[in-house]
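User: Please run a holo structure prediction.
Assistant: Happy to. Please share the sequence and the ligand.
User: Here you go; the ligand is magnesium ion.
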Amino acid sequence: MDSDNNSSDSFIKKDIEKFSGKIIAVANQKGGVGKTITAINIAAYFASYGYKTILIDMDPQSNATSGLGFSQDKIKISTYSLIIYSEDPDKAILNTQYENLKLIPSTKQLSGAEVELVTVFKREFRLKEAIQKLEENYDFIIIDCPPSLGLITINALSAAKDILIPIQCSYFALEGVTQLLNIIDMVKRSLNVKLEVQGVFMTMYSRSNLADGIINEIKNYFGDKFYNSIIPKNVRLDESASHGKPIIAFDKNAKGAKAYDELAKEIISRYKNQIQKQGY
Ligand code: ATP
Ligand code: MG
């Protein structure tokens, strides 16, 4: 076994670990920044380390659903059914081909929820109520958010405990982040006091002075919330999604695979540190 495998071994979940119920929303209202690729791949790496993981697709585009190889037309019970009809989440769960990894899929029907929810009682808490019973059965519950700050995202932020924010390495990187932070603050004050930004990380990096300057700017802005793992622009990631597979199953030696593996490990390490500090 090489040294890389040895270091990975230390991330395998141990039975004694109290690790359940980490509910993480992957959010950024800016489109195409890598939310879905991140949600799929960190979920797959968490699962590969033995953590019971469920990915919840809260985007009507259903990219997380197709990215795990499921086709929309075969789906009967989805996130829409959960938040509009209070359907039992266990009925919506799909087994993926990967051990420890499950999916609650979405279909384009979910786009209607944005309007339908407006008149619903406790409309911001529909997802939270729907997935409450999953908390004790899963270590990680990852929610892939749509590129908007409407009621679907608000539902995700009300249900989550933590937020991961992918930021694309581009000139307009910070555009919209302030608005996102304001919304997070609003949700924290009025709907979900426990909500925290767990981390911010850069996606689609390709080396240039401009990209390096942007990374420094974001790093200074977010301080210890900044993750050191930087996701490179890597066509294998794009290809893996189009083949309906996480990168670990598509090309585990690709640069993008190594980067998402590192990010997943960094997230696990941060949680372990937090758990240690809290003393349980
Ligand atoms: P949306 O806001 O529409 O939901 P998103 O933030 O979820 O988008 P993704 O769908 O994950 O973004 O990524 C946008 C596109 O870029 C996809 O085609 C994806 O496969 C591709 N992509 C994401 N990350 C990378 C990367 N690191 N390298 C190359 N391609 C990538
Ligand atoms: Mg997406």
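The pocket of adenosine-5'-triphosphate (ligand 1) is lined by residues 31-37, 59, 61, 63, 147, 203-204, 231, 233-235, 237-238, 241, 256 (CB under 6 Å).
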